[in-house]
Amino acid sequence: MRPPSGTTRKLLLAFGALVALFAAASVFALGRLSDIHEGTHTLQAASGRVRDALELATAVRDQYAHLAHTIILGNDSHARFHAESRARVEALTRRLWEQARDAEERAWVGDIQESGDALDRLYRETLLPAVVAKDHAAVTAAHGRALELVSVIQARADALARRFDASIGSFEEHVGAVEHTSFQWTLLLLGGATLFAAGVGLYIGNSVARPVARLTEGAARLARGELDTRIPEDEPGEFGGLAAQFNRMTEALRAHQEQLVQHEKLAGIGRLAAGVAHEINNPLGVILGYVRLLQRKAQGPLAEDLKVVEEEAVRCQEIVEGLLDLARPGRVAVERVALREVCDEVVARLQEAARLGSAQVRVEGDAPAWIHPQRVRQVLFNLVKNAAEAAGGTGRVEVRIEGRADGGASVAVSDSGPGVKPEDRPRLFEPFFTTKASGTGLGLAVSQAIAHAHGGRIEADTGPLGGARFTLHLPPAGEGV
């Protein structure tokens, strides 16, 4: 592959620089977004610590409330609620210990843990027994000690909440600064990229728009049927090459148009020939009838002469049938058929009619196909008969059926004969062209027409047996039929 040059290289460089600039802006923006995300995550964690500290203070107040109710009610009915509050205080204390970031915070959490344990022991071992025993003095003393412990826990929890709340403020400032800086740099990079993109657009307009306009004008003239349209090839780089390709395309299109006109002429001639063939077929039938009637009475040289007349009349009839086959409509009604059955039937009929001689015919493979059985049988009849004639008395003929992954199929008929001369291959499917002394030259032409009617084709090459190979390609269902 040739290295890019001219306009292609310039455009690649320009768009590469543009992509690099946008990529740099994107990477910077993603990095700043990562910082913002990390700061937001830190803020959420700090908010969680504040919430846990405040919940701890609330849980301690609930614990003290149940202690107070125990004193007021004078029984142990709130002992269970006190235990539940105590469990909540312990869970929050452990969570704050895990979230502590320095020695001071861990010391405060340690004070909370120690005071909480003391408060729980005071309740279970001193205050509750004193309440049950109606020992007012002991209850009063225990209540005073409980207030001291609750005050210590509240103070430490409030200190932690203030500390965590202060960290939230600092993180908010950091996140705000990152957002401001990110916005400025992203705006600068994207603005520069936009200006650069505008420059690239101007360059493309100057170096690409004019050649493209020429191509557009040439295409419009070509669409109007001006097949002699040519575009100047003086443009440097790829557009000059594109103009040259366009000119070659228009030349090929002009030649193809001439071929189409020629084919249309041939088609008209074919339709005329079909009409004439239809009119000739009736007199031929009459001639054959009278010749065969006279053959019953004739003897000697006259009988031999009548035999020659019959053979030539039959030959004319075969030519007429070939012309009618060429003139039949292109599209055919199809049905799903096993190709192996069709091939076996064709070989059997040829053997019954002694048209294969001593040639050995082998059929291999199988595949389904959507075909018109009678028309495809006619194609295979011609291909196998021709292969047997080419192979000779001791030759071999191979019929190989293969299915394709796309749902189509192919039937290849190979022989061990001398093959087809390279100079004859381009004309094999032309009407009236034949390499056999007694051939009409219509068999392969009719077969190719039938293949085209199915959306397929027949190809000729050298086969595995050393002779010719004619392959009938059939498309999947719904294509070309």
Automatic annotation (TrEMBL):
<feature type="domain" description="Histidine kinase">
    <location>
        <begin position="275"/>
        <end position="478"/>
    </location>
</feature>
<keyword id="KW-0547">Nucleotide-binding</keyword>
<dbReference type="Pfam" id="PF02518">
    <property type="entry name" value="HATPase_c"/>
</dbReference>
<keyword id="KW-0067">ATP-binding</keyword>
<keyword id="KW-0597">Phosphoprotein</keyword>
<dbReference type="GO" id="GO:0005524">
    <property type="term" value="F:ATP binding"/>
</dbReference>
<dbReference type="InterPro" id="IPR005467">
    <property type="entry name" value="His_kinase_dom"/>
</dbReference>
<dbReference type="InterPro" id="IPR003594">
    <property type="entry name" value="HATPase_dom"/>
</dbReference>
<feature type="domain" description="HAMP">
    <location>
        <begin position="206"/>
        <end position="258"/>
    </location>
</feature>
<dbReference type="InterPro" id="IPR036097">
    <property type="entry name" value="HisK_dim/P_sf"/>
</dbReference>
<dbReference type="Pfam" id="PF00672">
    <property type="entry name" value="HAMP"/>
</dbReference>
<keyword id="KW-0808">Transferase</keyword>
<dbReference type="Pfam" id="PF00512">
    <property type="entry name" value="HisKA"/>
</dbReference>
<keyword id="KW-0902">Two-component regulatory system</keyword>
<dbReference type="InterPro" id="IPR004358">
    <property type="entry name" value="Sig_transdc_His_kin-like_C"/>
</dbReference>
<dbReference type="InterPro" id="IPR036890">
    <property type="entry name" value="HATPase_C_sf"/>
</dbReference>
<keyword id="KW-0418">Kinase</keyword>
<dbReference type="InterPro" id="IPR003660">
    <property type="entry name" value="HAMP_dom"/>
</dbReference>
<dbReference type="InterPro" id="IPR003661">
    <property type="entry name" value="HisK_dim/P_dom"/>
</dbReference>
<protein>
    <recommendedName>
        <fullName>histidine kinase</fullName>
        <ecNumber>2.7.13.3</ecNumber>
    </recommendedName>
</protein>
